[in-house]
Write a structure and sequence with these properties.
Blueprint: E1 2-4, E2 26-29, E3 32-35, H1 36-58, H2 64-72, H3 79-96, E4 117-120, H4 127-138, E5 142-146, H5 161-170, H6 175-178, E6 182-186, H7 207-218, E7 221-224, H8 240-244, E8 246-249, E9 254-259, H9 264-272, H10 286-291, H11 300-306, H12 310-314, E10 318-321, H13 327-335, H14 341-350, E11 355-358, H15 360-373, H16 378-394, E12 401-406, H17 408-412, E13 418-421
Parallel strand pairs: 4-9, 4-10, 5-6, 6-9, 11-12
Antiparallel strand pairs: 1-2, 2-3, 7-8, 12-13
Length: 422
């Protein structure tokens, strides 16, 4: 392909038939010629075609039942949370994919409000996995932020804009793509203010962070510079937008905040009158209260008593909870999900040509140990890793190994798994 200068003889444009002296440049290929004007028209046509494909894709938003069914393939149990999340996410993306990005349809003046989500539940119960799976089925950028590291702007630590930067990086520095993403803020209970009343002194990592989150959760335009802290602008980018910062509108970003909220059970019990008082009152452990899943009955006033500012709770209209995982749920987590731990370890051994088997009693022992640790599903991987570390070290070097069998004694007593050789 060649581009001829104006003084060279060249045929007319094969598309618009303009002469050489009527255009700026003509690009020649094998038997075809195209001018710069037709090239621009082609670029616009391709852009419109891509836009049409995106619009068609937007109509393929999965329904709540479809979203919940997809969650079932990765998350065990938590039916109530799946139902709430599926409906909230469907309504959110139905709103932003409507004809008007502001939430107004062509023939209606009703403005649809944004529905951010507050997810309550003990550690290791699947809060982060639920949000990650939601982002996967919707194919939108996803970022996780830890509220414990956030401080007010101007203080040592990360400010609220840092989580928007993570989302922008997940969207390949595309602001329009990032503005339809999901941000999960974990450990939100760690920034509760000290006491129910207003803070007397400056609380830069508690109430101050909550106040900083208000505008972002509600929807505002924030200037985000696409670079890591102290690392300079995006490498290889010479655009002025990358140097001065990108404008990111948080109106269509779905925020899901989660936390364990230890101590909230006592507040709910005191309000509902189920807390035992006096000689006739019953004293229950925290595990017993969590097993009842008192979080299902939480109201905004309980969260305010816990230390969350009312303005922040008002921007989280959808409140749901996940339940403490019991023994049966932990057993199912080991084997049923698409990315179950047993399947992952079997795949690792298959890469070395070795079959991995688990006795049923061994899986039950893993679930019992995880239950005693009180860390939910997070403890399962640590237990399996500790049981399999020695064979994962030795088996790749042992010739003729065809099968590894994990027994109950492997989990309880630390014995070596049984090896079978060719």
């Amino acid at each position: 392909m060649t581009v001829l200068s104006p003084d060279e003889s060249q045929p007319n444009c094969s598309f618009c038939q303009k002469r050489r002296d009527e255009v700026l440049n003509i690009v020649s290929g094998p038997g075809v010629h195209i001018c710069d004007g037709c090239v621009e028209l082609c670029v616009e046509a391709v852009a419109e075609a891509k836009k049409g494909k995106l619009t068609t894709r937007a109509r393929e938003l999965p329904r709540p039942r479809e979203i919940s069914a997809f969650l079932d393939t990765y998350v065990v149990g938590q039916e109530r949370a799946k139902k709430f999340l599926s409906v909230a996410v469907y309504n959110h993306y139905k709103r932003i994919r409507s004809d008007d990005a502001a939430g107004r349809s062509a023939d209606d003046d009703v403005e649809l409000a944004k529905s951010n989500i507050l997810l309550l539940g003990p550690t290791g119960s699947g809060k982060t996995l639920l949000t990650q799976t939601l982002a996967r089925i919707l194919d939108v950028p996803f970022a996780v932020a830890d509220a414990t590291g956030l401080t007010e702007a101007g203080y040592v630590g990360e400010d609220v804009d840092a989580m928007l930067l993570k989302l922008l990086q997940a969207a390949d520095n595309d602001p329009r793509k990032a503005e339809t993403g999901i941000i999960y803020i974990d450990e939100i209970d760690k920034i509760a203010r000290r006491g129910e009343g207003p803070a007397v002194s400056r609380d830069v990592s508690g109430e101050g962070v909550q106040q900083s989150l208000l505008k972002v959760l509600e929807g505002s335009v924030v200037t985000v510079r696409p670079h890591s802290r102290g690392a300079g602008p995006v490498q290889g980018s010479r655009s002025r937008a990358a140097q001065d910062g990108l404008q990111l509108d948080t109106t269509s970003i779905l925020f899901i905040v989660g936390g364990a909220f230890p101590g909230l059970e006592e507040i709910i019990e005191a309000r509902t009158g189920t807390k035992g008082i006096g000689f006739g009152g019953s004293v229950r452990s925290r595990q017993e209260r969590v097993a009842e899943n008192l979080f299902d009955g939480v109201i905004p006033e309980d969260l305010v008593k816990f230390g969350m500012v009312p303005e922040l709770i008002g921007r989280l209209p959808v409140i749901t909870s996940v339940a403490q995982l019991d023994r049966d749920a932990l057993l199912r987590i080991l084997t049923e999900p698409r990315n179950a731990l047993v399947r992952q370890y079997r795949r690792l051994f298959e890469l070395d040509g070795v079959e991995l088997e688990f006795e049923e009693a061994a899986l039950e022992a893993v679930a019992d140990q995880a239950l005693s640790r009180g860390t939910g599903a997070r403890g399962l991987r640590a237990i399996l890793e500790d049981a399999l570390i020695s064979v994962m070290y030795e088996v790749p070097s042992l010739e003729g190994t065809v099968r590894v069998t994990v027994t109950e004694q492997t989990i309880l007593d630390g014995r070596e798994p049984l090896l079978a050789f060719r």
